[in-house]
Write a structure and sequence with these properties.
Structural class of chain A: alpha/beta
Shape of chain A: globular
Structural class of chain B: alpha+beta
Number of helices of chain A: 9
Number of helices of chain B: 20
Distance between the termini of chain A: 44 Å
Radius of gyration of chain B: 26 Å
Largest sheet of chain A: 8 strands, mixed
Helix content of chain B: 25-40%
Oligomer: heterodimer
């Protein structure tokens, strides 16, 4: 399918450089786009990640993993193949992987967000011959509203909850979305913010990497009878929704922030009071613009609506097919079951339970 | 809050029924009657018909949004709702015009479509899409095709109107029945003080029986009860007033044209009569299966051929009105006597008094019930002799004591995504049983599993898809489920040669291999049918 990239039972493989990109089984050498559970596999011999992603990757892998980092844009040679990492705008330290060998350039975007944001270096298109883009939201129904409008909606929702004497509980992936939401809260904060342990650990990692985030308190310090804690906002992983962990907050109103909230059926299935459309992935116009900006001739979409994006690209005259993969069945999960994708981001085991 | 779009979003924004009802009550208190009327109409599940075909709406939206048909279909499959798909696909409106009040939206942008040509319709719909803000577009699309699906039932709407107007729910329910046409005047009549008025045509709200869960002897002495067969047909009221005859089904459709023989016979009833009963297919002194009766329900017109193929009768079991006076508060035993005074024992043509089942003891009734399936009925109805004719499905006076469902084990063979809340989960499932060494599809089932089970099953479907036919996937036949149904009838239209009535999933049978699923002959035998000979 491509001079540089192929797929073997462990995942996307560059034979010339003898390394994998985001392998789904342990391999000797892994180049990793970002630290979400569906891209980062434990047990690999060596990892290469973007410099900004070191702390969050280490939180995920534990301290004994061999993690090598590279600043964005710096070129490395792996077995004679030129490799560099470029900002993907998805979460802190998320990277696109550029691979060049014998005059051919391939780019694997990993998950990416085309619009800029405060908690991740902004995506930049990288010119290439072959592009492996993600296609999680590759349907024209997915168009993201302006981030500032969503921030205003969240602030108004929190206000309303405070006036009704309810605790506002906002569900978001512990890594990435939670920190982006924190950065979008009004400044100064109108009330205290509590975070679930899984969120707090990664929020600390963000602060450690120099991202400015508002003050948060660990949820275990919440006291229903403390008047200073009235009208609080709680940020927690979606897995806590139906758990007894929530009870400590008394009367709550719940919301979920995700690109999937664009569709009403998904919102209702989530059984939350509010859904905010806020995604760390590219929307449909963002995907199309990004693909065009790379000038790629060959497009091999992966994750989600791969067939749709491939067919669209073919109809635009590009050589395109879904990235063929033995893992397709599982990737396909995320295509049609947004809830599973949401949870895939929480697969940091320690995060799955409160 | 007087804007319908705001109301819609507020209703959509809460999962609590009590809050939905409170929102509706506030709306009906404050909204201008000309808007409130349409809100009642749409939220109780009605729609204006003949406005625009969904296929055209789809086509125009794809053109305006500039997406190819295949991509529109992919989007629709992900969303599961046409109105929403269109609202999400259209480019953002240029002008953020204020949405006009509901009645004006309907008068200017919706109702005129009925008499327009398709070209005019396209122009008007596209203009509305261009002028309306995104959230209002969704509401507009719903006005065109109906089906708001916002977790509000007709009953909730009725209760909210009644609360807002300070009326008894039954009064509002009565006023809302039948062919209710929304207008400011209609809404004002709906909330007007109760003067016991009733339109000539209106039936009464149906009294529905609750399923009996415990043993029947908990109901007290059997002599307090009247037992009838539970017919598997179409519940209907005959309304005879001012020299006119109406036949209302429980879905509140006027169905006289589908059952002209019943309507004709009803002309012989005296003015001021309302009977309640069940329409069943009946030929040569025998009950026909429900699938036969269904042929009378789904046709635009009923041909002479169909009339003779599927003759019907109405088993009348109650009198709600006699000589123009409402009998519903009289005890059932008295209403029964009135019934027999109105109808000869052998019936007025196809209108026949429903026979009662002798109730010597609970044991005798239980024995009778045990043979229900042989008679083609669903079980027994138990009605307290002193019961008034109530509204809705309250517990206590009327019980349906159905026979246990038939159950069998079948293999999952096809799956497709559901719609609305269940879009993108595979919830519409097809099951097969064995005919020799071949699996033959026998039933479609949509219910009986929890969301978590559907999620797990959806993962299975994606990993085990062998073929795709549009949104439908064929899967490796490995998963066995226990299905329940109310009956199995011969059918020429189904590949298995049988139609399964009310199939639903009881539970997964992970302990069974597909080879251990039941055979078609076993299923036929359950229902007392002979072995399959095809």
């Amino acid at each position: 399918m491509d001079p540089l990239l192929s797929v073997d039972p462990c995942g996307l493989y560059c034979a010339a450089g003898d390394f994998h990109v985001d392998p789904w089984r342990p391999v000797p050498r892994a180049v990793v786009t970002h630290a979400h559970g569906d891209h980062l596999t434990r047990g690999c011999g060596r990892y290469l990640v973007a410099h900004d992603g070191r702390t969050v990757t280490a939180v995920r892998l534990g301290s004994d993993a061999r993690i090598q980092t590279a600043p964005y844009g710096e070129t490395l040679s792996i077995n004679g193949v030129t490799v560099s990492l470029h900002p993907a705008g998805h979460i802190l330290g998320s990277a696109q992987v550029r691979i060049e060998h014998a005059g051919h350039v391939a780019v694997v975007t990993g998950d990416f967000k085309a619009a800029p944001g405060a908690t991740a270096a902004a995506f930049e298109p990288v010119p290439c011959h072959t592009l492996v883009p993600e296609s999680t939201f590759a349907l024209p129904i997915y168009r993201w509203p302006d981030e500032a409008l969503v921030a205003a909606d969240i602030a108004a929702w929190w206000d309303d909850a405070r006036q009704r004497g309810r605790t506002a509980v906002l569900f978001a992936y512990a890594l990435g979305k939670a920190q982006r939401l924190l950065a979008l809260l009004p400044d100064p904060l109108p009330g205290p913010v509590f975070t679930h342990g899984a969120v707090e650990r990664l929020t600390e990692a963000y602060r450690h990497a120099g991202v400015h985030l508002p003050r948060t308190h660990h949820a275990s310090s919440y006291r229903a009878d403390n008047p200073d804690h009235a009208g609080a906002l709680v940020v927690a992983p979606p897995s806590t929704r139906a758990s007894p962990w929530l009870r400590r907050f008394g009367d709550v109103t719940t919301a979920f922030a995700s690109g999937w909230m664009r569709v009403r059926g998904t919102r209702r299935r989530r059984a939350v009071d509010r859904g905010f459309v806020l995604s760390d992935h590219a929307d449909w116009p963002g995907l199309l613009r990004a693909i065009e900006a790379t000038g790629a001739e060959r497009v091999l979409p992966t994750h989600g609506y791969t067939e749709v994006l491939a067919r669209w690209c073919r109809e635009c005259g590009l050589d395109a097919e879904p990235l063929p993969t033995a893992y397709a069945a599982t990737l396909d999960d995320e295509e049609a079951t947004p809830t599973l994708d949401d949870e895939a981001h929480d697969t940091g085991d320690d995060e799955a339970t409160p | 809050m007087t804007s319908f779009t705001d109301l819609y979003h507020a209703l959509d924004g809460t999962t609590r029924t009590s809050e939905k009802r409170a929102l509706l009550t506030d709306y009906f208190r404050e909204a201008p009657p000309e808007d409130a009327a349409w809100a009642v109409f749409y939220l109780s599940g009605q729609r204006l018909k003949g406005l625009v075909r969904s296929g055209l709406l789809r086509q125009w939206a794809a053109e305006v949004a500039d997406v190819p048909d295949w991509l529109f279909d992919e989007a629709y499959n992900a969303v599961g709702d046409l109105a929403e798909t269109i609202a999400l696909l259209l480019p953002d409106a240029e002008a953020h015009a204020q949405l006009p009040p509901l009645h004006r939206l309907i008068d200017e942008w919706v109702a005129p479509l009925r008499t327009a040509t398709d070209d005019e319709r396209r122009q008007r719909v596209a203009a509305a899409w261009g002028a309306l803000p995104a959230d209002a577009r969704f509401v507009y699309n719903k006005l065109l095709r109906g089906g708001f699906r916002v977790g509000v039932s007709k009953r909730t709407v009725t209760a909210a109107v009644a609360e807002a107007a300070g009326l008894d729910t039954a009064v509002v329910a009565l006023r809302l029945m039948g062919d209710w046409k929304p207008s400011a005047e209609a809404f004002q009549r709906l909330i007007a003080p109760d003067e016991g008025e009733a339109d000539t045509a209106r039936p009464y709200p149906f009294f529905l029986a609750h399923p009996l869960e415990g043993p029947p002897d908990e109901l007290g002495p059997v002599t307090d009860w009247l037992a009838e067969e539970k017919w598997d047909g179409v519940r209907a009221q005959i309304v005879r007033r001012d020299g006119q005859t109406f036949l209302w089904s429980r879905g509140e459709d006027e169905v006289a044209f589908r059952f002209p023989e019943i309507a004709d016979a009803a002309h012989a009833l005296p003015d001021g009569t309302v009977l309640d009963g069940e329409i069943v297919g009946w030929r040569d002194g025998r009950l026909l299966p429900f699938t036969e009766l269904q042929r009378r329900l789904n046709r635009v017109s009923v041909s002479a051929r169909l009339l003779s193929d599927v003759p019907v009768r109405l088993f009348a079991f109650d009198v709600l009105e006699r000589d123009g006076s409402d009998l519903r508060q009289r005890p059932l035993a008295e209403r029964r006597r009135a019934l027999h005074a109105l109808l000869p024992d052998d019936g007025l043509g196809p209108i026949v008094p429903a026979p009662t089942v002798p109730a010597g003891s609970w044991e005798a009734l239980a024995e009778h019930r045990a043979t229900s399936r042989d008679r083609g009925v669903e079980g027994l109805m138990l009605k307290r002799r002193t019961s008034p004719y109530r509204v809705g499905r309250p517990r206590g006076d009327w019980w349906k004591w159905k026979v246990e469902p038939l159950t069998f084990d079948a293999v999952l063979v096809y799956a497709r995504p559901g719609t609305g809340r269940r879009a993108s989960l595979f919830t519409d499932l097809s099951f097969a049983v064995w005919r020799g060494d071949e699996l033959v599809k026998i039933a479609d089932a949509y219910s009986g599993l929890t969301d978590a089970e559907f999620r797990e099953l959806s993962r299975f479907v994606r990993r085990n898809t062998t073929e795709r036919f549009g949104p439908v996937r064929a899967v490796t036949p490995t998963r066995v489920f226990e299905l329940a149904c109310e009956g199995v009838n011969p059918s020429k239209r189904h590949k298995a040669g049988v139609a399964v009535r009310f199939p639903r999933i009881v539970r997964a049978r992970p302990d069974k291999t597909p080879q251990q699923a039941d055979s078609l002959d076993t299923v036929r035998a359950l229902a007392g049918l002979d072995s399959d000979t095809t």
